[in-house]
């Protein structure tokens, strides 16, 4: 099974940049997209033979996730089932026979770490959510976890030195 994860930083821009060529070339079974910044009601992607699962933020033009899957999952869950965390469209969980697939766009702590407290609460809730799934069957987590191990993992290391 081939699973691809991609933070597109806006699905409209992605669609203008040879997305269909990439999609047809890669032939993934599952494509997990983060930071769509739009929802199914704003964008139509025609992909015969694939199911699409969109989860948009309540705030227009912000965050959002999408899973495109060749195989129909047994079930789909949108969010963590926690009101404080489920208005930004950040987590889609698909259950298949042998595993759970979690597509996540983890909140950024922001400039000067303005959202660090929220991020720490979110991280604990996400960890608890994944551990609960893992009691039933293996979990594949993919997405943008908004962490950088070293400077090479950052687009602009000097500008992002006090951001997370």
Termini Cα gap = 32 Å
The CATH superfamily bears the name Endonuclease/exonuclease/phosphatase
Q: Specify the number of helices.
A: 3
Average pLDDT value? Answer: 92
The neighbouring-strand order within the major sheet is 1-2-4-3
String of helices and strands: EHHEEEEEEHE
Overall description:
There is one protein chain. This protein is of the alpha/beta class. The chain has a single domain (3-153), classed as Endonuclease/exonuclease/phosphatase (Deoxyribonuclease I, Chain A). Helix content is 20%, strand content 25%. The protein has helices at residues 11-16, 19-26, 116-134, and strands at residues 3-7, 30-34, 51-55, 65-69, 75-78, 91-95, 100-105, 139-144. The longest helix is centred in the C-terminal third of the chain and has 19 residues, at 116-134.
How are the elements arranged and paired?
Layout: E1 3-7, H1 11-16, H2 19-26, E2 30-34, E3 51-55, E4 65-69, E5 75-78, E6 91-95, E7 100-105, H3 116-134, E8 139-144
Parallel strand pairs: 1-2, 7-8
Antiparallel strand pairs: 2-4, 3-4, 5-6, 6-7
Give a quick rundown of the structure:
By secondary structure, the protein is α/β, with parallel strands linked by helices. Helices cover 20% and strands 25% of the residues.
Features:
alpha/beta; 8 strands; 4-stranded mixed beta sheet; Deoxyribonuclease I, Chain A; 164 residues
């Amino acid at each position: 099974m081939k699973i691809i994860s991609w933070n597109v930083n806006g699905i409209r821009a992605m669609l203008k940049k040879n997305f269909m060529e990439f999609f047809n070339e890669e032939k993934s079974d599952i494509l997990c997209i983060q930071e769509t910044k739009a929802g199914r009601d704003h964008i139509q992607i025609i992909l015969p033979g694939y199911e699409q699962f969109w989860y948009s933020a309540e705030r227009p033009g912000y965050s959002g996730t999408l899973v495109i899957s060749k195989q129909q999952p047994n079930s789909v869950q949108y969010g963590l089932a926690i009101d404080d965390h489920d208005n930004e469209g950040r987590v889609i969980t698909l259950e298949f026979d042998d595993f759970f697939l979690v597509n996540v766009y983890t909140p950024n702590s922001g400039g000067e770490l303005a959202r660090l407290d929220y991020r720490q609460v979110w991280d604990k809730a996400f960890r608890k959510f994944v551990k609960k799934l893992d009691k039933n069957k293996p979990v594949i987590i993919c997405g943008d976890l908004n962490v950088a191990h070293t400077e090479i993992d950052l687009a602009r290391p000097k500008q992002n030195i006090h951001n997370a």
